[in-house]
Structures are given as C-alpha cells and as structure tokens.
Amino acid sequence: MPKEKEKEKLVEAITDREKDFAQWYTDVVKKADLADYSEVGGCVIFRPYGYAIWELMRQQMDERFKATGHENVYMPLLITESLLQKEKDHVAGFAPEVAWITHGGQEKLTEKLCIRPTSETLFCSHYANLIQSYRDLPKLYNQWCSVVRWEKTTRPFLRTREFLWQEGHTAHATAEEAQEETIRMLNIYAEFCENVLAIPVMKGQKTESEKFAGAMATYTIESLMHDGKALQSGTTHNFGDGFARAFGIQYTDKNNQLQYVHQTSWGFSTRMIGGLIMVHGDNSGLVLPPNAAPVQVIIIPVAAHKEGVLEAAKAMQERLSKIVRVKMDNSDRSPGWRFSEHEMKGVPLRLEIGPKDLEKNQAVLVRRDTGAKTIVSLDAMETAAPALLTEIQANLLAQARQRLHERTYTAADAEEMRKILDASPGFVKAMWCGREACEDQIKEQTGASSRCIPFEQERISDVCVCCGEKAEKMVYWARAY
Amino acid sequence: MPKEKEKEKLVEAITDREKDFAQWYTDVVKKADLADYSEVGGCVIFRPYGYAIWELMRQQMDERFKATGHENVYMPLLITESLLQKEKDHVAGFAPEVAWITHGGQEKLTEKLCIRPTSETLFCSHYANLIQSYRDLPKLYNQWCSVVRWEKTTRPFLRTREFLWQEGHTAHATAEEAQEETIRMLNIYAEFCENVLAIPVMKGQKTESEKFAGAMATYTIESLMHDGKALQSGTTHNFGDGFARAFGIQYTDKNNQLQYVHQTSWGFSTRMIGGLIMVHGDNSGLVLPPNAAPVQVIIIPVAAHKEGVLEAAKAMQERLSKIVRVKMDNSDRSPGWRFSEHEMKGVPLRLEIGPKDLEKNQAVLVRRDTGAKTIVSLDAMETAAPALLTEIQANLLAQARQRLHERTYTAADAEEMRKILDASPGFVKAMWCGREACEDQIKEQTGASSRCIPFEQERISDVCVCCGEKAEKMVYWARAY
Fold first, then answer.
1. Among A253, A280, A307, which residue terminates a domain?
2. Do B162 and A100 touch (CB under 8 A)?
3. To bridge B433 with a disulfide, which of A100, B426, B439, B464 should be the other Cys (CB 3.0-4.6 Å)?
4. Please, are residues A160 and A89 in contact by the beta-carbon 8 Å criterion?
C-alpha cells in the first residue's frame, strides 16, 4: 500500500525545535527534501529542492561579482603535494585535512595529489605565469566549485567533507587596493545575506588565532541561529604579499621596477543553506525568504474536479509565472496534505482556490511566515502576490534583526559570560587584551570562541574580560557551529 | 620593456591550419586565452574567456533540460570501491582509468574511494533509496560537475584528466519511456549543436564494441572537424533494467507488483569547446557563432582622443548592451593590434568608429566569418547589428553543413576506404556485417573506427565492406579524436 505509506510519512511530525534543535534541523533537511545521505561518509546528496536554493544563491551572488568586475574561471580539482607546500602557514593549516590521491588508474603516482581544500596555491601558480606588467593588474577571478576537507564530525550543509562554494582570488598592484577589495567583498557578502537570505550579520575582523591559514588578516560576517549559536557565514582574506613572495608573483610597475602583487581571497558556501534553515525555520519546517525560494507561490486547487477550478488555477499559474516563481500542486492528495508539504518546504506564499472562491472571483493567499490569510480578487493577483512577497522578505529580516538585537549581551567577566550563554545563548560583547591565552581560557570556561572584532567598536570597560589587564578591543563571543 | 614584449607576442602569427592542424589548435587555445596548462599533468585551467563560453553553453543547455522536466541535483565527488563494483560491465570499463584516494588527512581509509569518472553508481544507489512507488517515477535528474579519468595522452578540451560536463540520469517505469528519453535527449543535443554551436551532426547508434560500459544501447552525435576527423559530440545511453537489477531499484506498480525501473544517462562536455575551435576556426584564430560568443560585438574606437569619438563609442555600447553581448576595447594599443586580438578571440562582429565615421553619423561593421565590411548609420545600429549576427550564425552552420556534405563518401571495400581517408579525410559510409572482427580489421587497415549506425540507413551494397559477407547495416566510419 504505497499510498498509505506516503501519508503516514507526512503526518509524522518533525521534532520540536525547542526540545532538540539538532534533531529538528536534521528532520527539516530530510523532510523538506533538501539533502540525503550518501554512501561516502560525511558527503551529502543535494536533492533538487536543496540544489535549486543553491542555484538561486549562486546566480544572485554571481551577478554581484560580475557587476564589480570579477570574472569566472575554473582551476583543476587536484593539487600536487609540492604545490600545496609552497606557503608554509597555508600547508600547515590544510595538510591535516586533505584527501590524498596515490594512484591514477593502475599506476602509482610519482607525486601524491590532493583534492583542493581551497585553491590559493593553484591561483598563485597561475598568476605567477600570467602576471608580468602593471597592465595585467588587477586580476579579479572567482570560481564556483566543490572542495574537500576531511572533517571528523559532519552535519548536512554545516560541515561536510565535500561542499560547494565560490572562492574569489584577486591580485592587485598595491596593498591599499587589496585591502579595499577585502572589505568590498565582505560588504557584498553582508548585503547579500541581508537582502537575499534575510539574515542580518555582524561584520568584523578575526583574531590572530581564528584567521585563515596564510592570511595577513581575515574578515568575517557572523550570523545568529535560532538556538543562539553563531554561524560564520562568509570570510574574506587579505594576504598582503605573503603568497606572492612564496610563489614569485611579480610585476613590472610603471617605473620599470619589479614589485610583488598583493592578494585577497574570499569564500561563501552551501553552509548558508544550513543558515537559512536555522535562522528562519519553525516547527512546521523550512521558512524561505522569497528571494531565496525556488517556489515563491504554490497554487493549490481545492476540489479541482469541480467545474472551472483547475482551469482557473492554471490560468492563474500562467499569469503569475510572468512575475514570480510559481508552481501548482494538483496531486490527488488532500488539501491538508498538500498545505503541510509546502509549509515543510518553506514556500513563502500559498494560493488556495476552490469552487466557492471561484464564484466570488477570488482566491486565498496564506503567508508562510505568519500564517495570515488574505482574500484577494483574482483580478488583483499580479499586484497582491508580489506585494505580500516583499512584505514576507522584509518581515523575516526584521524578525531576525530583532532576535539578534535581543540576544546580544555584554559581559564584564568570563563567569558572567558563561551564565548568559547557559541561560539564553547569543552573542556576548566583551573586552579583550589581545592575547591568545585569554581566548583559549574563555573558550574552556564558557564554550564560546571569539567570533570577530567588530568594525564598530564600543568601550564596555577598560579591562580584559578574562585576565583583567588592559583591554585592547571589544570582541563578539559566541558558541558557534 | 613590457609593452614591447606584448606587441611582439601578437604579431607572431599562429601556425598555419593546413600545415599543422594539431599545433594550430594548441595555438588557438593559448592565444585566444581559452585555457592554460596547470601543474597537474593533463588538467587545464579554464581561463575567463574559455569559461565564459562554457557558461553560455551550460545556460542554454540547462534551459532545454528544464523545459523537458529535468531537475538539477549534486551528487558527491567520491565513490566507494564497493559501490563502483556493483555493475560488472561498468566497473570493467571505468576501473582502469580512475584516480584512487587512499588517505583522508593523516589516516589511511578503511575502503578506497575513487573520484567519479561518471556517476551512474551514485545515482543508482540514491534511486534505490528514493523510488518506492510508480508515483515516484519518472525521476529526471541532471548534474553539472567535473569528472576525472586518468587518460594517458591529453589535449586541452578534447581529452583531459579532469573535464566539466553535465550528466543526466533518469529512471522510468517502462522500457518504452526509457527509450523515448534516450532519443529525446539525443535530439536535444543535436538541436543544441546546430542552433547554438552551428555544428551539424550525424545521429545514430554506437556498435556493441563502442557502446558505454554497462549500457544496453548507446546513441551518439558525431561532428566533422576541419581536418576531416570526427568528434564524438554527445552520447545518450539506454541501460534497460541492468543497473536496476544490480542496485535493486524497484517500484510497486499500480497493480501492486514489484517492477524494476528502466534507466538512461546522457552526457555533454567541455570537449565541445574544442569542437567549436576545430569546426569554425581559421588562420586568424577562433571564429565563434554568435549564440556561443561571450562577446558578440566588439566596439573599437579609432583615434579615440579626437573630439566626440569616445563618447559616441560609449553611447553605442550603452545602446547595444540592451540587445547583444557587447564590449568596448579602448586600450592604448593600435587599432590594428586590437583588430587582430578580437579576431583571434573569434568575436563575430567588430564595430569600428572613428572621427570620419562620426562626421557622417556612421560606423563600420566587420564580420569575423567573411571579413565583409558594412557601413551602417548610427541610427540603424539596433537593427543592423543583430541582423548581421543572425546572418553569421546561419552562415557558419551552412558552411559546416556544406563541408560535412562534401566530405561524406561511400566505400565498397576497406582499401577504397583507406584511399579516401588518406586523400581527403571525412566520413565514409560503408556496409557492415555486424561482427566486431570486421570493425577491428577496418580500424587496423584504415585508422577509421565505426562512428555510428545512422538512423537514416541507405543500402549501398549487399555485402560487408570488410569480409564481403552479408551486410546488416550501413555505418559511418571515420578517423576520430
């Protein structure tokens, strides 16, 4: 009885978000058809709905990259061991977690290859060949690809052994230009998160111990999940001329002098699908902001066998398809079943149309974020549906902003920080002396790591939250994914 | 003197296509900035211009896939050894050429993993979990990714150890539906080649010895390169229920009976960038059909320092950008230098505008395919430029069709076939008895392999071109890449 089995599958509710956040997350991933597990431990299958969200994110981000002069390239998947080792901090950071290829076909390779964990070394080697003169600068390259890092504990989207991302790699004539690029891309990430994903972020610099392997400075956007944990949502790195010196990337300037280039890199990954789930989702499943929703409006004909209903639903789909991403679900399942399914999938707006609606030349629009119903004349749908989508997008961002605001605290000492984080986790603003020992101790005592040194500094006190000595910076701390 | 060096680089002509086709090909790849070599032997770097061509191809093909109901997914990069081995013909075909991963981070893996050479086994394993009932069918999945095959001899785009492609994988309730899908996708490939790439193709079935490892039947589109060699340009496979039996992919039909699904797969790769070069290119470099050209119109202001020239060029760029892919090259290099550079890159249409043109409110349009110049009033540009692009697209297809027609021969015996192929290579139509031994002997004697058994059969004679016994089929033979 396959039909019965399928019905059971749906009525079975997902885990309560407040009771077991981790299990709730896994339930949403599976039941919203976002991802599935694969035969290879720690790697997931992106199912059509999950991949469609990534396609939307990729497309909108790619437009932003191209509008700021970046070009897409594609570098090989494989890196020779000797190439990976050229920059010493970089190899120290990544070598412990790469996958090694030792055989090609039946033959043992003369030199081991690893699958790219990130592609700095490949870009540097290419730039060393490509860049000769100041005329060749800047080089503003990006690539969309997957990378592999041999993680021990994994969770769909948040931490997997293979993940999809984009990695930008740029080379500039001067240190100033490289720094400008590093901040420009951070701002693009932040704007994208807010306007597309409806996720507000904290912007700032990583501490020395949290920065990228080989970087001079790493910048980050950090967002707050519903369980009060932070998610590192995108990072940009200024390499100075460190990689250029290791790889010999030099150009002849206008005065005919040889100079090293200054480089940046920046990355944003499918982990933010996890962010979408954990920021907006609820006990009915996923809640997607319209700008990241593969289906923005789902049309559900009710009693579709009654005269005119299906035709009206189809006509509406045809009309709306010109302005929004719309689908119709006319399966033989009950309206309730179909309502739940598209709620689980986080479709922002449901359009119900039945015989009684048709008599009145109207339909019902139901918002996924608030559940609010609006009766709309069929003639006004091209205005009403997009207007509601705009409202939903704005509301999700406003709600997330409100939570971020409410759950950002200040602490004067580590004990206070621990209490806050135990009672109601979130970001804690606290002063820091600048020493790694204090970071380590705070982590041990509270479970919170330094998330960033925000650009907008406040002077909460004069002394470090840990050692009580002179404070250098205000830092955002949080327990994090 | 970097500027001097760059000038020299350009004036140095590429190898003559008729003298050394292979070297001419490599020159175009490098000098049109399509690809570069990487540190890992046999893997290339897709440079921005080469990757932009792939993006255009991908986008237009993806539209065709989605319009026929296919959905994109993403499967893991890695396959366990045991999974690869599940279908015996498949593993026999691919195991000799896969890259093996033995270590993750510092640890030896308990089971070897290979990088996907193709993803049948991953899709089958997923489908076995996913498909329960006839309601779950058909499954029409596709993915865009890279695959790795440890080839011994490589050439940019045509044969590399890593290449980009799409692979479609579908599961159907019946054998008829699977066969329909196999032919539908072959027709989409053929239509795409003709209408986007301006490359006419031969359609047909592969012989037993040329079919895909694990397939019941393989279909192919074959195109003719300028040197008279054939290029396999896309293949579709009908697996019957062979993989379904090996992986246990069963569904409950409407009568509550367990049935095996019937499957297909089909792939199209970056090798067709090589096809574009070898079908349309000439001794001035690449020639791109407008539908596959990242830049369709290049605007070259001449004497841009003269009053009004640059402004007029910019205004024209702004106007044309609404209807075509247009760029302006206002570098300080000579007009001649710039003309050559964009000819090398195969830009279909050049728009020259200088002070004298401006006086007459006109510009000169120069076609890349014929070199023909047209003087066009600036006011008429929105009509004239797209019209010329349409003509160029049609002309390139017509020329390629003409060559294909002229270089398709018939042969009665292997000796005649050899003579034809030595004198003026192309496709040779000849009858075949259906035995692999004859295929092998023809290959040995003439260097030509069976390319396909065309759908449109002709009865050239009654006997096999090789053994003289009763002929079963007419086959297209050619020396091939």
1. A280
2. no
3. B464
4. no
| B131 shares a domain with B26 | yes
Of A251, A280, A309, which residue sits at a domain end? A280
Alpha helices per DSSP H over A345-413: 355-359, 381-406
Domain check: are A305 and A163 in the same one? Answer: no
Per-residue pLDDT band for B10 (boundaries 50, 70, 90) equals low
Residue that is written with structure tokens 């480089």 in the block:
A263
Query: Which chain A residue is nearest to residue B43, measuring alpha carbons?
Result: A76
Q: What rounded mean pLDDT belongs to chain A?
A: 95
Give the pLDDT score at A234: 98
* B145 and B14 fall within a common domain: yes
Percent of chain B surpassing pLDDT 70: 98
Q: Within this chain, do residues A125 and A199 fall inside the same structural domain, yes or no?
A: yes
- Based on the fold, state whether residues B327 and B361 are members of the same structural domain: yes
Q: Do A73 and B40 touch (CB under 8 A)?
A: no
Domain span holding position B423: 408-478
Residue A104 domain flag: yes
The CATH number for A75's domain is 3.30.930.10
- Whether A472 and A325 map to the same domain: the answer is no
Render pLDDT for A419-441 as a digit per residue (tens, 0 to 9). 999 999 999 999 999 999 999 99
Instruction: Verify that B114 and B253 share a domain, yes or no.
Output: yes
User: How far, in Å, are A116, B83, B115 from residue B108 at the CA level?
Assistant: 18, 19, 16
Least Cα distance to B116 among B89, B76, B161 occurs for: B76
Question: Is the Cβ–Cβ distance between A324 and A297 less than 8 Å?
Answer: yes
Mutate to test the interface with A, among B6, B30, B36, B73 (most CBs of A within 10 A): B73
The ipTM, to two decimals, is 0.95
Q: Would you say residue A249 lies in a domain?
A: yes
Give the three-state DSSP class for B478: strand
Name the residue in chain A with its Cα closest to that of B142.
Answer: A48
pLDDT digits 0-9 by tens, B116-164: 999 999 999 999 999 999 999 999 999 999 999 999 899 999 999 999 9
- Cα–Cα separations (whole angstroms), residue A72 to A63, A65, A141, B362: 11, 9, 6, 35
**Domain assignment of residue A108, yes or no:** yes
When pLDDT is cut at 50, 70 and 90, the band that residue B360 belongs to is very high
| DSSP reduced 3-state for A212 | coil
Q: Rounded to 5 degrees, what angle do the CA atoms A70, B40, A154 make?
A: 70
Distance (Å) from the C-alpha of residue B455 to the closest C-alpha of chain A?
Answer: 34
Query: Taking residues B381-402, what's their average pLDDT?
Result: 98
- Contact list, B77 vs chain A (CB under 8 Å): 43, 77, 115, 146, 148, 162
State the SS3 of A133-161. Answer: EHHHCCEEEEEEEEEECCCCCCECCCECC
Confidence at A10, pLDDT banded by 50, 70, 90: low
Which SS3 state, helix, strand or coil, does residue B241 take?
coil
Buried b / exposed e over A317-353, threshold 16 CB at 10 Å, is: beebeeebbbebbeeebeeeebbbbbbbbbbbbbbbb
Task: Return the minimum-mean-pLDDT range out of A4-8, A106-110, B292-296.
Answer: A4-8
Measuring CA to CA, which residue among B428, B462, B464 is closest to residue B447? Answer: B428
A255 found inside a domain: yes
The answer to whether the CB atoms of B52 and A75 lie below 8 A apart is no
pLDDT of residue A95: 87
- Name which of B77, B122, B161 is nearest A146 (Cβ-Cβ): B77
Q: What's the pTM value of the predicted model, to 2 decimals?
A: 0.96
Do A199 and A339 belong to one domain?
no
Residue A7 clears pLDDT 60, i.e. is over it: no
- CATH number of B362's domain: 3.40.50.800
In this structure, what CATH number is given to the domain that contains residue A452? 3.30.110.30
**How many structural domains compose chain B?**
3
SS3 B124: helix
